[in-house]
Amino acid sequence: MEERGAWPDRAPWIREAVRALPRDRFAPERLWRWDGHTYVPVDRTDEPGGWADLLFSDPDAAAVTQITEGLPTSSLSCQGIVVDMLDSLLLEPGHQVLELGTGTGWNAALAARRTGPGRVVSVEMDPEVGETARARLLAHAPDIRVEPGDGSLGAPGSAPYDRIIATYAVEHVPWAWVAQTRPGGRIVFPWGRLGHVALTVADDGASAHGWVQGLAQFMPDRTTGSGARPGFAEVRGTGRPDDERVWNRDIAPLRDDWDLRFALRVAEPGLHYTVAEDSDGWNAWLHDQDASWAVIAAQGDGTTIASQGGPRRLADLLDQVWGEWTRLGSPDRYAYGLTVTPDRQYAWALDPGTGPRWYRSAGPLDEGA
Asked: Does this model's pTM top 0.85?
């Protein structure tokens, strides 16, 4: 953070809080490292250097703190994104704060440094994680109240709140979050897997609106489940393509252009894809985790062929959404936002009133590309 000059100018309190409460004070004795095949334990007593590297070597990397059935289910959020989201929260002394997803307790402790004692409530679904965080917070922020429960329900007993912050990713914002926030209050959360949003509750409390603020990659809401979902091979099976055509776009931006990737996710959150380069050029494999798939393959002679099967023409859909984004001027992620009302919510680009809209349906979180 120091080398990058990434501390927010408008919130110097965050830097002071992180210095007073560094990540290692909230890290468990065992962390987990991905070795390319599986997650392996890294114990502080056995590998103190490796344990510390997982915490401090990269401010943009989370440290996995819990593995369930081979998959990460809890982590110590990466410092860079924690700082950015606290900055987006516009937190002031005396604010009443609800945190959704206690995790290690670090984020709640940082927030409490700003609000003052007795102003932060944190909800954690996993009883074991919650108890561990509660014990850890006793040493650093004993006035934080950790409650067990489903974060999508908020914590109505202590509402209304001036600020709500979620530490897990959602596609569909629970209305309870808006209903439990004061008019003019702010709600900050990871939206899907590519960015975080800050909503401001309207003066009449009947809606909330806000723009994408920055990057965020968090684990999804636990209520959506963490089990394996169909990949390209399972969706395609032995199916033959129903349609083939020449593909006229360069595929490489699907891997490297994060603004394009964000736009695709906003417009078609159920579209999954993998991109790779071989000796013939760039290729892409698309699927919808259901029955539709497409392969966009370089032929080695300068041409690329799109083959697709299933009820939805995913190559055509990709081409359409990509073209619409280009016609809008290729806006970056900060040109997008979200509006939430009791009965619907929609994403928009460029302008919340006049820009294009994409309506969201409540449902499981799509894991991304």
From this structure: yes
